[in-house]
Amino acid sequence: MWASFWLGVVAYAVAWTWGGRVERFAAAVLLVQCVIMTMNFILTWESGGVYLTGKIANVVVLLITGWLCIRSDRWWLLLMTATTGLKTLADLVGVLDPGLSDFALASAKIGLGYVIDLTLMLSVVERWLAGEAPAGRAAWARADIATAARRNRRPHRRSRRVPASSGNNEPTVHGPDPRLPA
Questions:
Q1: Which 8-state DSSP code applies to residue 176?
Q2: Tell me: the pLDDT tens digits for 82-140?
Q3: Using only C-alpha atoms, what is the Rg of the chain?
Q4: pLDDT per residue as tens digits for the range 103-113
Q5: Any idea of the CA torsion for 83, 85, 91, 95, to the nearest 10 degrees?
Q6: In the predicted structure, residue 173 carries a pLDDT above the cut 60
Q7: 124, 159, 125: which is closest to 20 by C-alpha?
Q8: Helices (H), 130-174
Q9: What is the mean pLDDT of residues 61-65?
Q10: In contact, 66 and 81? CB cutoff 8 Å
Q11: Rounded to whole angstroms, how far apart are CA atoms 54 and 46?
């Protein structure tokens, strides 16, 4: 349990640091799911209760990764969605067959969790091999470009408009406003 937890934390940190926007969004979703499932596991372990919160979290992650898979052109989202679907199917089998061992279900879901976390890390490696910049650097680069453009802009000189005396209601410009600095 704890090995998969720490593998997930490392995968989410790698995806957040060096991944693109899609990788970051997936890492944030999986981190929230990890926290929810860990808290659910810790709080209900002694009571032997139903882990309904974890099952709901798996369905929500399945819907989010499916939505990302449709909207994005990343290959790894298809694998992540399919693996999350298998985790959800394992939850469904566990509900439908109460005689099935909890350890069998847990080991299946932990193994599928490893596949999801490794897929997320491989997505960052694939992004690096393709030469794509991480989302953080691209955002800072855009901010630097915008700041430089704003600093290099020439000051805008405003003109004073005085109504024309000819009665045609067209404003006439009579030079710069003397109240503004040159």
A1: E
A2: 999 999 999 899 889 888 888 898 899 999 999 999 999 999 998 888 888 787 666 66
A3: 28
A4: 898 899 999 99
A5: -150
A6: no
A7: 124
A8: 135-152
A9: 95
A10: yes
A11: 16
Q: Tell me what pLDDT residue 37 has.
A: 84
Residue 87: strand, helix, or coil:
helix
Largest pairwise CA distance in the chain: 96
What six digits make up the tokens of 163? 């109504």
pLDDT on residue 131: 83
Instruction: Please state, in angstroms and rounded to a whole number, the distance separating the CA atoms of residues 124 and 18.
Output: 6
Tell whether the torsion through CA atoms of 169, 170, 173 and 178 is positive or negative: positive
Token look-up 């410009």 returns 173
17 contacts 136 by C-beta, under 8 angstroms: yes
Number of Cβ within a 10 Å radius of residue 149: 9
Distance CA 104, CA 146 (A): 55
Of the two residues 171 and 69, the one the predictor is more confident about is 69
The pair of structure tokens assigned to 166 is: 């000819």
Whole-model pTM: value is 0.69
Q: pLDDT (tens digit, 9 = 90+) per residue, 154-171?
A: 555 555 555 555 555 555
**CA-wise closest residue to 27 among 107, 111, 108, 119:** 119
Nearest C-alpha neighbor of 28 from the set 58, 54, 8: 8
d(CA 36, CA 98): 23
DSSP result, 7-42: HHHHHHHHHHHH--HHHHHHHHHHHHHHHHHHHHHH
